[in-house]
Design goal:
Chain lengths: 96, 491
């Protein structure tokens, strides 16, 4: 199943990955090969099969929706690539 | 035991000797740190070594013991962690440039448990980037080498942990397994690795790859060491909503139980096809003989959907990964690309520069499989086939107590041998992947060596939450096949 260069660029945009022309071509080839391989699943009739999203069925665990303060705020902020006081600083959000 | 060098002691032996004051934690830790210093430039099992912090921990253990207090069963013994487990105040990279300077503000549950048991942390083990790989070659920090042959890979993604254990640069370690990442490197490095039942070990603070498949577990040089370490890290944690609240049995007690009457299933699909090396087949037959000699019975069984497992995995795991890895955007922590003029450009360039090729490839597959128009055909389809694969196992475990299979189709391959062909690399996980899809536990136990002296492991699988049965069967294999566990590697 061949995928096109346009599809690769579209998916890269969705995934927020900037790709070069050479990378796009390499990804097109590799993704096509992998998608070809996984198409073998079409040989199975799964019309009446219920999908599995969790291997172990445990039900949904509920808990009270309570705020628990995290003690070390500075340890979190210290990881920021760029910060201003107690905020994470980012480049311009509204682009032209 | 008098002639066994300190670094080759088992985890339980080292713990007993510290407890009985035959050796101090400072001395024990010093021996290990010196060994890391001498050998790790060749093996590269560690991303981060912590000589000062480990020495300080060891000194604290000794002081507490002098006052009569022991922290836990591994008081004062060095145990390493894959660099996927968050360690408060200690860099946690997940093998990626995007987390190369991340200092977690909290400990993973596994980290808390190992430290509470008294372990000293000598460092953080190398791994494939975000645990995506089967050779440890995708690490941003460079590959780990197999201590049995430095021209070969140690397996992956927990290759650093398996290599560190096999090279006696820690007494045991904790890795993670999403599609074989504990069992395959354990097999290739000649040590024991356990993938517990999904939900047995908390994933809190373990960097997420594919959340419905990821599970932490021990890598050790003996079955008993692995059983003891699983006993420490297993258990309920409310901070992981998929962690199961059932009691943790005494795994160590299971190791010596007899296997008489145990029904060992041989799934025929795992022995067909020309991908399985004859040497691996012969070694696994030795493990089978070990079990039958001790009174186990053999049943031929079939898992008919086995050949669809790899495809299912390579849709589900990347889909979950593409979602989990969306959080790496250069805003709150980790790497950020310089000089972007706007937010979207900053994020797109951060991710392009911060992730390696294999991670990008999987994000792309996953994003594609989840995108509008393809969701049902790929991701939805894979989730349905996953149901069929689970059902195969449920049925087989009516006739068998454990399944015996190869862990990996071949012994360790050479560095660079498969890096150019993603599908060839993925095939090295062909026997380990179905276990993760089904959520059941698995263990790899050494069962022989190739003619070239490379270790070979056998995989045992059981029903969910029957890890005890795995330890019983693996213990029997180990007693019958006493193989060298420490690689002959000298500084």
């Amino acid at each position: 199943m061949a995928i096109t260069r346009e599809e690769v660029l579209h998916v890269a945009r969705l995934a927020r990955l900037s790709v070069t022309e050479a990378e796009a071509e390499r990804l097109r080839e590799q993704l096509s090969a992998i998608l070809d391989y996984v198409k073998q699943l079409d040989r199975l009739d799964t019309r009446d099969v219920v999908p599995t999203s969790h291997a172990i069925e445990t039900g949904t665990p509920f808990r009270d929706d309570l705020v628990e303060p995290f003690g070390d705020r500075e340890a979190i902020l210290a990881n920021a690539p760029d910060r201003q006081n107690d905020c994470f600083r980012v480049p311009r959000i509204i682009e032209d | 035991m008098a002639n066994v060098p300190v670094h080759e002691w088992t985890l339980l032996e080292a713990a007993r000797r510290v407890r009985e004051k035959e050796i101090s934690s400072r001395e024990l830790t010093g021996v290990l740190l010196a060994r890391i210093e001498a050998l790790d430039s060749k093996v590269h099992a560690y991303i981060t070594v912590l000589p000062e912090a480990a020495a300080a921990q060891a000194a604290a253990c000794d002081e507490e013991q002098a006052k009569g207090a022991l922290r836990g069963p591994f008081h004062g013994v060095p145990i390493g962690l894959k660099d996927i487990f968050c360690t408060r105040g200690v860099r946690t990279t997940c093998g990626s440039r995007i987390l190369h300077d991340f200092i977690p503000p909290y400990d993973a549950r596994v980290t808390e448990k190992v430290l509470a048991a008294g372990a000293v942390l000598p460092g953080k083990h190398n791994m494939d980037e975000f645990a995506m790989g089967s050779s440890t070659e995708t690490s941003f920090f460079g590959p780990t080498r197999n201590p049995w042959d430095l021209s070969r890979i140690p397996g992956g993604s927990s290759g650093g942990t398996a290599a560190a254990v096999a090279a006696a640069m820690c007494f045991a370690g904790v890795g993670t397994d999403t599609g074989g990442s504990i069992r395959q490197p354990a097999s290739l490095c000649g040590v024991v690795g356990v993938k517990p039942t999904y939900g047995r070990v908390s994933r809190y603070g373990m960097v997420a790859f594919a959340s419905s498949l990821d599970q932490g577990g021990p890598i050790a040089r003996t079955v008993a060491d692995a059983a003891a370490l699983l006993g420490v890290i297993a258990g309920y944690d409310r901070r992981d909503s998929t962690c199961v609240d059932i009691p943790v049995p005494d795994y160590l007690a299971a190791v010596e139980r007899p296997v008489k009457g145990l029904r060992v299933g041989l799934p025929k699909e795992y022995y067909e096809g020309d991908g399985l090396s004859p040497e691996v087949r012969a070694a696994v037959e030795n493990a089978l003989k070990a079990l039958t000699d001790q009174g186990a019975t053999v049943v031929e069984v079939s898992l008919p959907h086995t050949s669809f497992a790899l495809s299912t995995y390579y849709l589900i795991a990347p889909a979950e990964a593409s979602s989990n890895l969306a959080r790496y955007d250069g805003v709150r922590y980790g790497y950020r690309a310089e000089g972007a003029s706007g937010l979207i450009e900053m994020m797109s360039r951060t991710r392009a520069e911060g992730f390696g090729d294999e991670v990008k490839r999987r994000i792309m597959i996953g994003t594609y499989a989840l995108s509008a128009g393809y969701y049902d055909a790929f991701y939805g389809k894979a989730q349905k086939v996953r149901t069929l694969i689970r059902a195969d196992f449920t049925k087989v475990f009516e006739a068998a107590d454990v399944l015996l299979t190869p862990t990996a189709p071949t012994p360790a391959f050479r560095l660079g041998e498969k890096t150019g062909d993603p599908l060839a690399m993925y095939l090295s996980d062909i026997y380990t992947i179905p276990c993760n899809l089904a959520g059941i536990p698995g263990i790899s136990v050494p069962c022989g060596f190739s003619a070239e002296g490379l270790p070979i492991g056998a995989q045992l699988l059981s029903k969910s939450f029957r890890e005890e049965t795995l330890f019983t069967a693996a213990g029997a294999v180990e007693r019958a096949l006493p193989l060298r566990r420490v690689a002959p590697l000298e500084g």
